[in-house]
Write a structure and sequence with these properties.
Structural class: alpha/beta
Radius of gyration: 19 Å
Strand order of the largest sheet: 2-1-3-4-5-11
């Protein structure tokens, strides 16, 4: 039997981090070797724990420093923090490429949400217009969610691809609208309208509505408990060391 994957969790006292710890401790092929708070000496903890994978669920502003330390020690990071800027993602990508180490950044670890994004790619090839409604709890600090942004980017890629039936009404320059209340039509990510809802009682929900002449297609995913994220986190931990540089999204691991 091969040695278990040694996992260090940064942010292990948080809601997601504690669930990840419990999930890792329940698996025979994984070994929880320690937790790290945001201000701990991460370099020393990595050395002492001899970890293979660092799972990071801390705040966006601290993720890059933790990832750089992990990569310097040739440890593969799994990043679950929401709200990371595009520039920080590019820096992480560059650092991974320079060191030739696999890393994974997942906007959403729910396998159902990832499947929804894959279905959106299929629908986008034939249905030319879409809007996204994403709904989260009122403590979520970023809007739109990274899941919604990633979904919009995937849809836009297909709309611009070969064979796509592009509806230019997604383009405000082609089809100008009058907003009587500023922002009422949502924001645009890669040209796709995205509407964000933040209310108590919600956890994480996303609805994508495609429209074409005489028909609509609605795809929706609902997360009611954070335990839904754990199968995806475990998949990421088991796969990240075999990746070529930074991979964004779990979808490539499911194909």
């Amino acid at each position: 039997m091969s040695n278990p994957i040694r996992v260090l969790i940064r942010g292990h006292r948080g809601r997601m981090g504690s669930l990840v710890q419990n999930a890792v401790e329940g698996e025979n092929d994984l070994l929880f070797v320690g937790g790290a708070a945001r201000n701990d000496d991460l370099s020393a903890l990595i050395k002492d724990s001899r970890c293979d994978v660092l799972v990071d669920f801390t705040a966006p502003e601290s993720v890059f420093s933790g990832v750089r330390i992990a990569l310097d020690h040739r440890v593969s990071p799994v990043i679950g923090t929401s709200g990371i800027s595009p520039s920080a993602i590019r820096e992480i990508e560059s650092a991974c490429a320079t060191r030739r180490i696999g890393a994974l950044l997942a906007p959403n670890f729910s396998l159902g949400a990832v499947i929804l994004m894959s279905l959106c790619r299929i629908a986008s090839k034939r249905l030319g217009k879409a809007e996204i409604i994403e709904m989260h709890h009122d403590k979520k600090v970023d809007a739109p969610s990274q899941t919604a942004s990633r979904t919009a980017e995937l849809i836009a890629e297909q709309l611009g691809g070969a064979g796509a039936k592009r509806d230019k009404s997604n383009d405000p320059e082609e089809n100008p609208e009058e907003e009587r209340v500023q922002g009422v039509r949502g924001g645009r990510v890669a040209g796709i309208p995205v509407h964000s809802v933040r209310l108590p009682g919600l956890l994480a929900h996303q609805e994508v509505i495609f429209g074409a002449e005489g028909q609509t297609l609605t795809l929706r995913h609902d997360t009611y408990d954070r335990t839904a994220f754990m199968p995806g986190v475990l998949l990421a931990i088991r796969s990240v060391q075999g990746l070529d540089g930074l991979v964004v999204g779990l979808e490539s691991l499911l194909e």
